[in-house]
Specification:
Elements: E1 2-6, H1 10-21, E2 25-29, H2 33-40, H3 51-61, E3 64-67, H4 70-74, E4 79-82, H5 97-109, E5 115-118, H6 126-137, E6 146-149, H7 159-164, E7 169-172, H8 176-185, H9 187-191, E8 196-199, H10 201-232, H11 236-244, H12 265-278, H13 284-308, E9 315-319, H14 334-344, E10 348-352, H15 357-363, E11 368-369, H16 373-377, E12 382-385, H17 390-393, H18 397-403, E13 408-411, H19 418-423, E14 427-429
Parallel strand pairs: 1-2, 1-4, 2-3, 4-5, 5-6, 7-8, 9-10, 9-12, 10-11, 12-13, 13-14
Helix pairs in contact: 1-3, 5-6, 10-12, 10-13, 12-13, 13-14
The structure holds uridine-5'-diphosphate-glucuronic acid.
Length: 439
């Protein structure tokens, strides 16, 4: 089928290449001409495992290409996926101006029968608005352009794997014709056994917010539990394991640590809270989830301050700067929130990340970015393990400790075995669990 994708960011580009490799003919478009040029030259603009290889392969097969002209992009499309950003306004709600603009432009040029499917995370009720946008942009009564909601559940760092083999595909539509078109698009996935859930549009839109808010809630529950465990001398990881053995709860997303970040959870929580308020329902639980998340950074900062007493003139090394492993994304990254707190308190802060050093430096210019963990820790009074990259979990603790002025390790993600840290000569501060004592 002919597919158009508007917006070539994280969701859009992954959609382009995975739709192409499943046999569709895909055209991606974007408002940024430089990006399109680089994409056509085979350059992936962000890191995601197997993205670069897939882009190169699908470009050479001619199954995907990128154009600036909307008319060319959508002119033959059976489905137009809207994957543009929905940034947060100062008031918390999602800014849908780019969604409106993209749908309006696509509707002017799409053939009759096209389905315009929202993949960007949008609040419930957006499709109703978009139908009005379509009517205004394409008043021709002989032209039918449908709206569908097809929220994306992919995770950064595993985006290609998630898009190739999602847990479920969710499609919200309200006509049989649109439903059938979306079934055809996803036939290669459903034939391989992937469940397709079909709902109304409002339900699909709301389901995305519900999923992200609930995952964030689980993390905040674990982080609040960590604060209690630290006071009670209990072990949050062991408790999460016990909870996880109950299949009604599940172990995933119960890792206490520095909290969640990224472009989705913090923004979606705010947008969901605003949406609930607009619909006349107070949902303070969502605000509490965010407050507990902020507290996780604060608790780590206080551990460093407690260990070092005065922070002025001290050097703190942060291992991991991305909001999670497997990505160079630093949007709302908890390690950077911690870096800012430390800089404000007068500390010199160095940082190392396998992928996110450059983006982190743009966000926090005071950071001294190191080429490896040992250089990062050189002369430091404290290191903080901030992101659970394998490379960081496998660090040689003896070598790390020797590089430091004072071997203090704050393990904000519980990456290390406490006894090994003590054996390597560290004063060790885990998160939500007691530090082992030397026998
Ligand atoms: C999240 C959802 O998991 C995806 O399903 C969704 O499609 C996506 O948002 C989106 O809306 O686009 P993502 O933001 O890529 O995906 O990252 P996650 O893997 O969910 O991690 C989010 C944050 O939670 C990270 O900072 C991670 O370190 C943190 N986290 C995760 C914890 O602190 N503890 C945990 O137990 C799990």
């Amino acid at each position: 089928m002919n597919i158009a994708v508007v917006g070539t960011g994280h969701v859009g580009l992954i959609t382009c290449v995975t739709m192409a490799e499943k046999g569709h003919r895909v055209i991606g478009t974007d408002v940024d001409p430089d990006k399109l040029q680089r994409l056509n030259a085979g350059e992936a603009p962000f890191y995601e495992p197997d993205l670069q290889e897939t882009l190169t392969r699908e470009l050479s097969k001619g199954s995907v290409r990128f154009v600036a002209d909307m008319a060319e992009a959508v002119g033959d499309a059976a489905v137009v996926f809207i994957c543009v950003g929905t940034p947060q306004r100062a008031t918390g709600e999602a800014n849908l101006a780019a969604v409106e603009e993209s749908v309006s432009r696509a509707a002017r040029h799409a053939p009759s029968g096209t389905v315009i499917a929202e993949k960007s995370t949008v609040p419930a009720g957006t499709a109703r608005r978009l139908r009005e946008v379509v009517k205004r942009s394409r008043p021709d009564p002989d032209v039918t352009i449908e709206i569908a909601s097809n929220p994306e559940f992919l995770r950064e760092g595993r985006a290609m794997a998630d898009a190739r083999k999602p847990d479920r595909i969710l499609v919200g539509t309200d006509t049989e014709a649109a439903r059938q078109t979306m079934r055809d698009v996803y036939e290669p996935w459903t034939a391989a056994g992937c469940p397709l859930v079909e709902t109304g549009i409002d339900t699909a839109e709301l389901a995305k917010h519900a999923c992200n808010a609930f995952l964030a809630l689980k993390i905040s529950f674990a982080n609040a539990l960590a604060r209690i465990c630290e006071r009670a001398g209990a072990d949050v990881t062991a408790i999460a394991d016990v909870m996880g053995m109950d299949e009604r709860i599940g172990r995933a997303f119960l890792n206490a640590g520095l909290g969640f970040g990224g472009s989705c959870f913090p923004k979606d929580l705010k947008a969901f809270d605003r949406l609930a308020a607009e619909l006349g329902y107070e949902f303070p639980l969502l605000r509490e989830v965010q407050r507990i998340n902020d507290e996780a950074v604060d608790a780590t900062f206080r551990k460093v301050a407690e260990a070092l007493w005065n922070l002025e003139g001290k050097k703190v090394a942060l291992l991991g700067l991305a909001f999670k492993p497997g990505t160079d994304d630093v949007r709302f990254a908890p390690p950077l929130a911690l870096a800012r707190r430390l800089v404000d308190a007068g500390a010199a802060v160095s940082g190392y990340d396998p992928e996110a050093g450059g983006p982190a430096l743009r966000e926090v210019p005071e950071l001294e970015i190191a080429a490896d963990p040992y250089e990062c820790a050189a002369g430091a009074d404290c290191v903080v393990a901030c992101t659970e990259w394998d490379e960081i979990a496998r660090i040689d603790l003896v070598r790390l400790g020797k590089a430091m002025a004072v071997p203090i390790l704050v393990d904000a993600r519980n990456l290390f075995d406490g006894t090994s840290a003590l054996d390597a000569g560290f004063t060790y501060y885990p998160t939500g669990r007691p530090a082992p004592v030397i026998a």
